[in-house]
Amino acid sequence: MHALTIASGRLEWSTRPDPIPQGSQLLVRVRSAGLNPADLLQLQGHYPPPPDVPQDVPGLELAGTVVEVGPLARRFKVGDRVMGLVGGGAQAELALVDEAVALAAPAGIGWESAGGFMEAFATAYDALVRQGGLTLGARVLVSGAAGGVGTAAIQLAAAAGAQVTASARRMEFHDRLRELGAQRVMLPSDAAESGPYDLVLELVGGPMLSAHLGQLGTSGRLIVIGVGAGRRIELDLSLLMARRAGIAASTLRARPLFEKAALVSSLGERLLPMLASGRLLVPVAATFPFADAPSAYTRLGEGGNLGKVVLISSG
Ligand SMILES: NC(=O)c1ccc[n+]([C@@H]2O[C@H](COP(=O)([O-])OP(=O)(O)OC[C@H]3O[C@@H](n4cnc5c(N)ncnc54)[C@H](OP(=O)(O)O)[C@@H]3O)[C@@H](O)[C@H]2O)c1
Q: Whose CA is closest to atom 22 on ligand 1?
């Protein structure tokens, strides 16, 4: 098979042996694979993959067709269309996905949307619902709302009956974010006077964090998921004390399989029907053929994307 590989900070389209599915793994012929900022970090040598995935083949999410199953796989069979959440190795012609972190791709969903669903929606669901305890009518701020995770989070929070505020620095995306479910859309510069919020999903980090912490309401929670704009801030802890507020933070990639399996199971029960019915959308900003992956990485790195950048196979 061919796989996108990272060698000395460069992307190459390399030849690799076909993987062999073990245990409950599926061998998937990849039709599409969403890009994530983690791929850019890995390319720059800043985000080593967990030990149980191919070390030089990037990619955290994919969609494709099952071509072989391991001896213990029970849920899927050859020919099934699946979407998978993996710790690496998705950006290849063939990829291994444990069936515990695979979902059936709904029939009406095209490959480009299916390939960009898992990482963004798993991250947003985990942060809002499992860590943030999202409740009916909660006042939610999504910071960095126009990207893959942000557009997923707006839709999930709106579907859960929250009052959603989206913060996005590009005005040209504001109308689309309203269409996805945000009741209010603002520029990041307006955040300091915009609260109070019960839940803030922080996808930007850096200077935004201080402004957003100042807008937490009583018992509010700020969940840090992205720190692309900076990871260090000076923090006035009395702000948190006075409001009995809290900060949580997490990453998804390095979690053990059983934890990812529980998360993917929740996605299957709760989100898959909404994806199948069209109530949840995967906005795709651009697609690129695998052979043109460097252009896709450049596009993601430049920003200005409403939703996902997705690699598509020509097969
Ligand atoms: N913890 C985890 O497990 C996990 C999982 C997935 C993602 N993440 C992280 O979460 C963040 C969002 O991921 P994503 O997939 O949604 O990325 P994305 O599609 O690249 O979107 C990022 C969004 O943030 C905006 N943004 C970036 N820097 C900004 C700044 N300084 N001020 C205001 N807005 C800014 C971007 O706007 P422009 O288009 O204008 O640049 C874009 O709309 C990333 O940092 C990613 O690494 C973490």
A: 147
Atom of ligand 1 nearest to the CA of 252: 3
| Spans of all domains in the chain | 2-117+253-312, 120-249
What's the CATH architecture for 120-249?
3-Layer(aba) Sandwich (3.40)
A 10 A CB-CB count for 16 gives 16
Ligand 1, atom 10, lies closest to the CA of 226
Indicate whether this model's pTM tops 0.90. yes
Residue 208 is predicted with a pLDDT of 87
The answer to whether 163 and 196 are in contact (CB under 8 A) is: no
Class (C level, CATH) for 2-117+253-312: alpha beta
CB of 167 closer than 6 angstroms to any ligand 1 atom: no
Give residue 38's identity as a one-letter amino acid code. A
Report the separation in Å between the CA atom of 119 and the middle of ligand 1, taken as the mean of its atom positions: 13
Pocket lining: 143 vs ligand 1, CB cutoff 6 Å: no
**Tens digits of residue pLDDT in 164-189:** 999 999 999 999 999 999 999 999 99
On the 0-12 / 13-18 / 19+ scale of CB atoms within 10 A, 262 is middle
- Distance from C-alpha of 257 to C-alpha of 7, rounded to nearest angstrom: 27
